[in-house]
Amino acid sequence: MGKIDVDAIRPLLRALDDAPVHVRQLADMFRKHGNAHKRNKGDITDLDDRDLVPDSLQNGWKSDSDWTPDSVVSWKGDAPDPSDYLDDDYITQHLDQFKDGASRIYFSDSLHQYGPGQADNSTFVFPTSELQRVLDETGGDAHALADALGMKPEWFHVDNDLNKPLKDVEIRNFAPEELTNLRVPSGNEAGANENWIPGGYLPTGVPEAVIDVPESATGTKVDYNPGLWPGTGQGLTLGLNS
């Protein structure tokens, strides 16, 4: 690394050294899995932990918890309940973002074959207003939308191949009364991938939560019945603007 790079990143390192352990680890996760690496050298002097980790999450981690972000992630599959390391007020305020409903983007083929729930009868959702904001900002561009959701550009392409066409997608909107067992994700959910971060946010800062869906809304059950699915469908057409 050249001298200019070292000089640019040194303020960031100093800022992280002064931050609590959980903030440093969360900032590292957000940088690793998010889009911070796309910032140029002129931006990096202002890039400290507070730019990466939502203030509420910085302040919401229990100071007396033995759990750190790294240890939570290392226990994936048997990770603790978020209430073990997040303040009750933080959890309440986070879930309050979903008071007007929640939404999720589905691949149409998967949705029609298996329903809106994972094998463990859960599904990740975003606040409906937040997903709409992301859609408005990305303008229906598949690559921009994937980037905003912390995914690779090929995420919406058939077989995750940039040389293949885009998959058909659609939105399912869940009304407030359909948000059964709304909760902060623990990381143990079937839909949690390697980019999952404790605290209820995507690596790009979009809030997320998990709800339960009935067994009748998953294709892994004998009583699979699309007529019993929660949520209301909404069309979504993606394209490529460049």
Keywords:
single chain, alpha+beta, globular, 5-stranded antiparallel β-sheet, 242 residues
Strand composition percent: 5-15%
The helix content, as a percent range, equals 25-40%
Number of helices: 10
Order of strands in the sheet with most strands: 4-2-1-3-5
Would you count the extended β strands for me? 5
The number of domains: 2
| Net shape | globular
| Element-level helix/strand string | HHHHHHHEHEHHEEE
Mean pLDDT: 87
The Cα radius of gyration reads: 19 Å
Biggest sheet character: 5 strands, antiparallel
Topology:
Layout: H1 3-17, H2 21-33, H3 41-44, H4 49-52, H5 55-60, H6 69-74, H7 88-96, E1 102-107, H8 108-114, E2 122-127, H9 128-138, H10 142-148, E3 169-174, E4 209-212, E5 232-236
Antiparallel strand pairs: 1-2, 1-3, 2-4, 3-5
Overview of this protein structure:
This protein folds into 2 domains: 3-87, no CATH class; 91-236, no CATH class. It is built from 10 helices and 5 strands; from the N terminus they run αααααααβαβααβββ. It has helices at 3-17, 21-33, 41-44, 49-52, 55-60, 69-74, 88-96, 108-114, 128-138, 142-148, and strands spanning 102-107, 122-127, 169-174, 209-212, 232-236. The chain has a 5-stranded antiparallel sheet with strand order 4-2-1-3-5.
Care to give the gist of this entry?
With 242 residues, this protein is α+β, with helices and mostly antiparallel strands. It has helices spanning 3-17, 21-33, 41-44, 49-52, 55-60, 69-74, 88-96, 108-114, 128-138, 142-148, and strands spanning 102-107, 122-127, 169-174, 209-212, 232-236.
